[in-house]
């Protein structure tokens, strides 16, 4: 069974940076078959797509709210996907989740109906 573990969350001041990591294990398909997405959920709000990467070719997709500030990448030797977050704003505060699926179109649409989810990591942007 696929397991995803997020790490790297924490408290950061506005304008600061953080790097989140999502490490996968127990996958039943070839790693290249997967798409890995990052989603976030703030208190009282719905879960929203942040970014997604297609492992097979590295195609990356971003929500408009994070374009130019966040970068998604994968280290296939480590089965790990990173989300580099810079110029963070208070409105970026949320629990960040990584998720995995194999339907490539879901990556383009940042569709939250992914098959497997991590436990989440808290990101707080505050002075």
Characterization of this structure:
- This protein has one helix at residues 104-109; strands at 3-7, 10-12, 18-25, 35-41, 48-54, 60-62, 70-75, 80-85, 94-101, 116-117, 121-125.
- Helix content is 5%, strand content 47%.
- The strands form 2 sheets. Strands 2, 4, 5, 6, 9, 10 and 11 form a 7-stranded mixed β-sheet that branches. A 4-stranded antiparallel β-sheet has the order 1-3-8-7, with no helix packed on it.
- With 127 residues, the chain is mainly β.
- Strand 4 (35-41) and strand 5 (48-54) form a beta hairpin.
- The chain is built from 1 helix and 11 strands, in the order βββββββββαββ.
- The chain starts with a strand and ends with a strand.
- The model has no long low-confidence stretch (mean pLDDT 95).
Strand proportion: over 45%
The proportion of residues forming helix, as a percent range, comes to under 10%
| Count of helical stretches | 1
Q: Stretches where pLDDT falls below 50 for ≥5 residues?
A: none
Rg calc: 13 Å
Structural class: mainly beta
Cα-to-Cα separation, first versus last residue: 40 Å
Average predicted local confidence, pLDDT:
95
Helices and strands in order, then pairings?
Elements: E1 3-7, E2 10-12, E3 18-25, E4 35-41, E5 48-54, E6 60-62, E7 70-75, E8 80-85, E9 94-101, H1 104-109, E10 116-117, E11 121-125
Parallel strand pairs: 2-11
Antiparallel strand pairs: 1-3, 3-8, 4-5, 4-9, 5-6, 7-8, 9-10, 9-11
